[in-house]
Structure formats: structure tokens, C-alpha cells
Design brief:
Elements: H1 9-21, H2 24-31, H3 35-49, E1 54-56, E2 61-63, H4 65-93, E3 98-104, H5 112-122, E4 127-133, H6 135-143, E5 149-155, E6 163-176, H7 181-185, E7 189-190, E8 200-202, H8 207-217, E9 225-228, H9 232-240, E10 245-249, E11 257-261, E12 267-274, H10 282-291
Parallel strand pairs: 3-4, 3-5, 7-11, 8-9, 8-10
Antiparallel strand pairs: 1-2, 5-12, 6-10, 6-11, 6-12
Helix pairs in contact: 1-2, 1-3, 1-4
Length: about 290
Amino acid sequence: MLQRPAMELRQLQYFITIARVGGFRRAAEQLSVSQTTLSQQIKLLERELGVQLFERTRRQVALTPAGSAFLDRSQKILADLRMAREEALDFAEAEHGHLKVGAITPNPMRWMPRLFAEFNRLHPNINVTLVERSSEQLVKLLHGSEVHVAWLITPTDGVPGLSFQRLFTAEFVLLAAPDHPLARSGQSSVTVEQLANQPLILPPPGPSRAIVDEAFRAHGIEPRVAFEATDPSIRIALATEGLGLALASERTPAELHRVRIEGVSMLHSAVLAWTERGIHTRAAAVFVDFAT
């Protein structure tokens, strides 16, 4: 009886990358392998598992139900392997660790370079990589153990599965171009009902967007989303062109008219967040102690 080839870790990485980017071509570019090699390895993986992982059409690639279940398990396997490797290095090198710190972009925290300088002075043998992403992306990276800690924006009660230290709490506001009717009238606040037909420029689904969606749905209204953009500076630029009202923190610098939403909580917090898995290395634990 012929023995099936054993599953390889690189096949899991290939599979996860395809699922994340939504296609073989883009995954092959990110992984620096040929599309043919990628396709062959996924076929071998499917043969080993005895299930089809992807539904392939001419326009897109989508996970099958079996593929979705396997994706969750594969991500945990690779996260555990990263953790095991870092723990081994931690024992071998004492405080000669490598720390991955996430930060929202664009980053309004002007004190961050000074903090890193002080941390480097106290712990010169810990190398730091700064990973700049949106809050939504950083939450995924934290859960996947791809960053150890991250500064991000969350609802005031946090995000499930994350421990955090709150830095400050602020309010979301809407930014309007100078020629927008709200700006011309000098109106500084509106109700959710007044926004029912207003085109809005919001972040994609995630912690920040959830605050807006919940505020609207509490009044039985679905927000009219004209554009979605992760980067606040892009949302502001779109609002400047008159394409809608842009969501931004009240602390965001912008030369636009600011409008509060009445009668709902639009509060959010800037936090330093981590998972229990994320601070398993000595370097990560040292940084959390230092930064909090």
C-alpha cells in the first residue's frame, strides 16, 4: 500500500496566504514562487487531507466549508510554531530578543520615538520592528501572534481576547468640506436621523466601524456608506473633495468643519493591547511592563 506524502509547513503557509489575499496569482507574488508551484502544492495538500479547500472559478477563489475550518486550525498551528521558536530563542539568548510592535497609521502618538529611545537605552539587546497598520489589521495580527503588542483604536470596553492599557479616550466626529451645507451653516452637531441620507466616508468593518454601526442601528437606521477607507488621511481627503462626511477622531488634525453626532456614544479609546499568547517571550513581557 502506497503511503501518502506528509503535509508540509510550507503548504500551510501557501494555503493561508491564498486565503488571505483571495487568489493564487497575488499569493504567488507575495510568496515569490510560481503560480504553477503554488497550485501543485495546494493540490497535494488537498489530496493529503482528502477534501477540497478552495472553490475555484474564473474570477475568484473562495474557501469551501472544509477550507474555512482548516484555515482556523492552520493559523493556530503556525502561531504556535512562532511562539515555540521565540521561546527557544528567549532561553538561548536571555534578553537578546526580537520584539514586533504594532502601531496605527497614520500615527498621532508623537511621543512614541522618545519611548522607543528610552526602551533601547534600557534594553539595547532587544531588536524592535515597528509594524504600521490599521486598528482592524492590528487586531488580526495580535490574534495571529504576528505582533507581540500594538497601539490601536478600540471601543471603550476593548476588544474580546485582548488585554489592554488605555492611553486616552476621545470622541469620533464627522468632518465636512468648507462648501458642505453643514459647514456653511456652521452647524456643530447633528442627530442620527439627520444623517440618514448623508453619504458617509467610514473605515471598513472592524472595531472603529462597529462604534458607528451600533450608534446608527440603535436608532433603526443603516448608515449610507459612500466610501470605505482604512487610512484617516484618505477619508479626510475624500471629504475635502466633497464626497461625503468623513469619520475621524476629534484629535485628528484637519482643516475641515467638525460635526458631533448627538444622543449617541461615539467614544473610542487609544490602547496598548496584547494577548496572553503575545507576551510569552521575555522581550515582550519586558516591553509591556515598560510601556504601561
